Structures are given as structure tokens and as C-alpha cells.
Amino acid sequence: MPDLRYHLISLISVFLALAIGILLGTAMADRGVISERLQAQITDVQDRFDDQQKDMAQRDNQIEKLQERTAVEQDLAERMSQVVITDRLLNENVALVTGPWADDDAVGAVEAVLSEAGVEFTSNTQLEAPDSVEMTSFETTGETTVPSENIYDEQTREVLQGSEEAGEPRFVVFVGGGAVPEDVPSGALRRVTASQRAMIQTWRDAGLNVVGAESSTTERSEIELFENIPIPSVDNADQPAGQAALVLVIDEDLEGSYGTKSTASDLFPPAAS
């Protein structure tokens, strides 16, 4: 879309021309003549206006070409991503877990890419934020603070159990991040974070591989939480490159943080050796 500044300049030029036109009409009515100086000013404004129109047309053309190039590159990225993704995780047992405030675009993208990769979902769990934190107490072990009671204890066990159809999971993909609503009780974020840490650690202790993921545009990132546990993560799971990275992390059981944020250890997983 053309830069609005150039349209603003154009409008200003039009108003200037109109103002001069009014002065011109007044001069003609009062004196019946147009001074050479006024005529020169009118010509100068018109020349500037014409130059601005040409400049705007040139910039509009550049922007249009840039948009076309971006669309082509986006299409290319999606096609390359599909080559990496399609049936890459065929019949791999995966549990999908979504944090209470995870961005919808990331959740939908992750679920779609795992389906395209051919996984068997053993469960699909949406965590809910606590209504109250009044009765919560916390315990500190070393450098880790956890709630005395994991509010997601039931969901933790359900993920471990899997389903009768698909069996138990081998991987858990945890989609986190997202903006915390203003009406959430004070202390809820701390409790959720501590409980998420506890549930992920429980899965790891049980031998499951856990991978964190979130949107590239999320207002609140949980990549540092994933790194501190530690588990591998992808911070741009809403984008084709991030979706391909997520599949590769699972398929090759990789470590590290991948994506476009400053917390990432690399943009994309390394080539298999």
C-alpha cells in the first residue's frame, strides 16, 4: 500500500493550488490583471505538484513490485515447508497441549502442521487459567519455585495416559505464550507458570520428549521458561519456516531454541549430519 505521506503531500499541494486560485480570482476581479510574479508562483506550484505526482507513481510502482516479490517468496517458503513437513512424522504419537493464553494463530498452525506431518494425536488439551489463587502456597527448591499443588495435575496425568486408540505419547508439543487478560486474578500468572514448569518436568521424568512453541507475534513469550527447564522450542510456529523447524525438532529429537526472536539459539535447525 503506498505511503500515506506522499498522499498527504499531494493533498497539501492541491490545497495550495486552490488557495492560489482564489487569490488569482480575487486579483482578476479587483484589478483585472495577473502580475508576472503571481503567474510565476502558480507555475512553480504546478511544477512541484507534477513532480510529486511522478514521484508518487514511481514509489507506488516500487511498492507494488515489492508486494509481488513478497507474495512469491511467501509462496516459495510455504512450498518448501510442505516438502519438509508432509508425512515426516507419520504415525508418531504426539500429545498437543495449549497454555491458557496461547495465541489462536499459533495453536491452529501447530495443530495443522502436525496433522500434515502425519502424527497420531494421543490427546489435545487446553489448559485453563485459575479463577483464584488465594489458597495457593509455593515451595522453593534450589532456584525453582513451584506451587505446593500443581493446578494442572489432572491434565498432566491425562497426557501421560494417552488414549485407547493412539496409545501413549512419545512427544508432547506445548503451545505457550500469549497476552494475559487484565481481569485475571493477581498472582495467576505466577501460579500458571510454576504449574506449567512442574507438569513439563513430570513428563520429562516419565521419559517423554517435550517441545515448546509459540507465535512470532505473541505479546508474552515463554521461550525463556522453556530454555530454563530446559526443552527445545520454536518461537515462530505461526510461520512456514517455524512449522518446518518444529517438525524437524521432533523428527530428529533436537535441542535448542529456533526462530526469529532474540532468545533463539539459531534461525533454523542445522542440517542432519
Structure summarized in a few sentences:
The protein has 273 residues and is an alpha/beta fold.
Polypeptide structure, described:
The protein is α/β, with parallel strands linked by helices and 273 residues long. The chain has seven helices and eight strands; from the N terminus they run ααβαβββαβαβαβαβ. The strands form two sheets. Strands 2-1-5-6-7-8 form a six-stranded parallel sheet, with helices on both faces. Helix 1 (4-31) packs antiparallel against helix 2, helix 2 runs parallel beside helix 7 and helix 4 (153-161) runs parallel beside helix 5. The radius of gyration is 29 Å and the shape is elongated.
Strand-helix topology:
Layout: H1 4-31, H2 36-85, E1 93-98, H3 104-117, E2 120-126, E3 138-141, E4 144-147, H4 153-161, E5 171-175, H5 188-205, E6 209-213, H6 223-228, E7 233-234, H7 240-251, E8 257-258
Helix pairs in contact: 1-2, 2-7, 3-7, 4-5
Biggest sheet: strand arrangement: 2-1-5-6-7-8
Strand elements, count? 8
Cα-atom radius of gyration: 29 Å
Query: How many domain units?
Result: 2
From the 3D structure, determine the CATH topology of the largest domain: Rossmann fold
Shape: elongated
Assembly level: single chain
Straight-line distance between termini:
44 Å
SSE class: alpha/beta
- Taken in chain order, the helices and strands follow as HHEHEEEHEHEHEHE
Query: What is the average per-residue confidence, as pLDDT, rounded to a whole number?
Result: 84
> How much helical structure, as a percent, in the residues?
40-55%
